[in-house]
Amino acid sequence: MSALSIKNLKKVYQGGLEALRGIDLEVEKGDFFALLGPNGAGKSTTIGIISSLVTKSSGKVEILGIDIDDNHSLAKKKLGVVGQEVNFNQFEKVGDIIRNQAGYYGLSFREARENTMYYMKKLDIWDKRNEQARKLSGGMKRRIMVAKALVNKPELLILDEPTAGVDIELRRSLWDFLTEINNSGTSIILTTHYLEEAERLCRNIAIIDNGEIVENTSMQELLTRLEVETFVFDLQEDISNLPKIENYELRIENPKKISVTIQKGQGLNEIFSLLSNSGIKIASMRNETGRLEELFLGLVESTIKEENHGPH
Amino acid sequence: MDPIEQIRALATILRKEIHRFMRIWMQTLIPPAIMIMLYFVIFGEIIGSRIGKMGEFDYMQFMVPGLIMMSVISNSYSNVVSSFFGQKFARSVEELLITPLPNYIILVGWVLGGVARGLMVGAIVTVVSLFFSELTVANWPLAIFVVFLTSVLFSLGGFLNALFAESFDDISIIPTFVLQPLIYLGGVFYSITLLGEPFRTISLANPILYMVNSFRHAILGASDLASLGISLNVAIGMILFFIALFSSISLWLLNTGKGIRS
Ligand SMILES: Nc1ncnc2c1ncn2[C@@H]1O[C@H](COP(=O)(O)OP(=O)(O)OP(=O)(O)O)[C@@H](O)[C@H]1O
Ligand SMILES: [Mg+2]
Hints:
The complex is a heterodimer.
Chain A: E1 2-12, E2 18-28, E3 32-36, H1 43-50, E4 58-63, E5 66-67, H2 72-77, E6 79-82, H3 94-104, H4 109-122, H5 138-150, E7 156-160, H6 168-183, E8 187-191, H7 195-201, E9 204-209, E10 212-218, H8 219-224, E11 228-235, E12 249-254, E13 257-263, H9 269-277, E14 282-287, H10 291-309
Parallel strand pairs in A: 3-8, 3-9, 6-7, 7-8
Antiparallel strand pairs in A: 1-2, 1-4, 4-5, 9-10, 11-13, 11-14, 12-13
Chain B: H1 3-23, H2 25-28, H3 30-51, E1 53-54, E2 57-58, H4 59-89, H5 94-97, H6 103-132, H7 140-164, H8 170-184, H9 199-203, H10 207-220, H11 224-228, H12 232-256
Helix pairs in contact in B: 1-6, 3-4, 3-6, 4-6, 4-7, 4-8, 4-10, 6-7, 7-10, 7-12, 10-12
The complex binds adenosine-5'-triphosphate (ATP) and magnesium ion (MG).
């Protein structure tokens, strides 16, 4: 059974903007799924329709096999959503915000209190329970959003850019937390602009651009499709000019750092020996992050080009 | 959602709504108390004696039921319109929309919130009035029934206003340009029987007239209703009719997503 199944979903906003042009999407139960795409691609619109904040123009959405039109109530019960923007009353106390969300789901007073406490402790906001939400930092507000989405113990959790504007430490702890939740059986879909995040967390991925799915595959498959890879070498000694090495495209990034882009299948051994033959001592080597970025840009490039060449 | 879950959700909304107006009591509960005191000072002491009697009652005695109704109406309305619009504005209405909650629970929750504020303010104004005048209530059950229905109706009105509102201006336009005039011309301050034609007949189209006079009837045991040839049942029937109308429109709009879903 799919955690989420979307068929030919279309959305035309009032005013005529076509935000979704008939997308299909399948997310397996238990999956950790990334939905990527540039600004305005239609990610939040898709999530909005799944969570009934946006009305669809046409198409079909099933949450864990339940059609949202046929059995709205049951489908929604299985869903937790972290919206892209803060959507709670900032004048309320943090604890009340989360407990009220549990109440809206119809949880008993006791269950609501227990779940609230559990997730607030898990997300490290329990000691803020009596503070007004508006006094908390942006990162803390994100955690409130996550706790709120989980308080009903959903089977499918959707997060719309949960780590936007969040510092590295919190981002990592959120990653660990989401991985834990996913391991315990919750299916997760997230959108993000940090490709590193998707690469690290997600097993499957879809890329949406301009209201259309342009790629839908496993993360592994996507990464093996990368044609080129860039490596960075940190050097022990400064260099001023590079030896000419055939077949390799070397660049000086700074006197202590050079980089090389190699084609898939081209080994690294050769470059090591060529470099050391030229007297260059390598201190360390790393893979330049953002491998996925290149691919991503390749996939959405067509539309970027169109936009740039369109009438001004 | 099963009925028990729905009731829990409803209780959550209501508790949150009561919490909201209690938290800002300086803006919600104190002003009506001050207003009624000022009315007592100005109309009771300074001007009232010159106006003389309104029918068989002192002017202030005549006015108190109208003032209670005025407070109930404006507080029920403004509670719902500002709370629900605020919720839309802060996007926290999404908290409800993402849940399995049926729309009618949302509507009933906010209406009961408005009723809670309306009744509380009505009680405050009544208590303050007791300090300044001898208020005897001819028919308690009727008084409470009429206040309750009125509060429901104007809470619904506030809800509709909030659904349509797109800016903070929109939530003050209706209260200022529609509600206020209807209240002031609805027999709060004077007996409709004092009016000549055509104003007397025009006034009959004002629904607030029926509520104020039904309530006055419950408190004083007499009102304009009799001299206008309208029975109490008709007056209450009018209120019920508007409640049915407003709640159907609200539910229909909620179901179509008007003002809350894009
Ligand atoms: N309420 C709305 N009314 C009209 N157009 C809208 C509305 N919401 C979004 N849009 C438009 O729909 C398109 C898709 O927007 P959406 O928010 O789904 O993008 P997104 O992929 O989430 O982008 P981002 O990465 O910036 O969050 C955009 O062109 C946007 O301007
Ligand atoms: Mg978005």
